[in-house]
Specification:
Strand order of the largest sheet: 1-2
Order of helices and strands: HHHHEHEHH
Distance between the termini: 29 Å
Structural class: mainly alpha
Radius of gyration: 17 Å
């Protein structure tokens, strides 16, 4: 059973989105693998400050072309759609936890590239919201 102090610590981390921030920072660090990781992290925190002040969304690892590539891997026969299971798995692998369970095409089990990209970008924006809302 968690102590009161542990509950307060957990609430503090949740309220300030510290876990999400550290997840984002770690992902970026591993993606870019900079020569000087400390300097890189400082730069990312400076970008965070600018994002907070300007209201502009912070850095994101994936852009439209990256999502096109992911979709292409899932649709090697170029059918122009993927299954809901593939959609869900791909978004999970991109680090998106709050997946839309009813995207367009779910009833036919055919998620289009456009729907996949729209949902992925929305999820990635929510994931990187720590840059705008800390």
């Amino acid at each position: 059973m968690a102590t009161q102090r542990e509950k307060e610590a957990e609430e503090y981390l949740r309220n300030h989105k510290i876990i999400e921030l550290l997840d984002n920072m770690t992902s970026m660090l591993l993606f870019y693998r900079p020569e000087n990781p400390r300097e890189f992290l400082i730069e990312q925190l400076e970008q965070l400050k600018v994002s907070q002040e300007s209201g502009v969304r912070g850095p994101n690892l994936f852009d439209s072309s990256n999502l096109d590539a992911v979709f292409g891997i899932l649709d090697p026969a170029n059918q122009k759609y993927i299954t809901f299971g593939q959609y869900k798995h791909a978004l999970t692998m991109l680090g998106i936890k709050d997946i839309n369970e009813c995207p367009e095409g779910v009833n036919e089990d055919r998620i289009s590239q456009e729907t996949f990209k729209t949902e992925a970008m929305a999820g990635l924006q929510r994931r990187s919201a720590t840059y705008a809302s800390l």
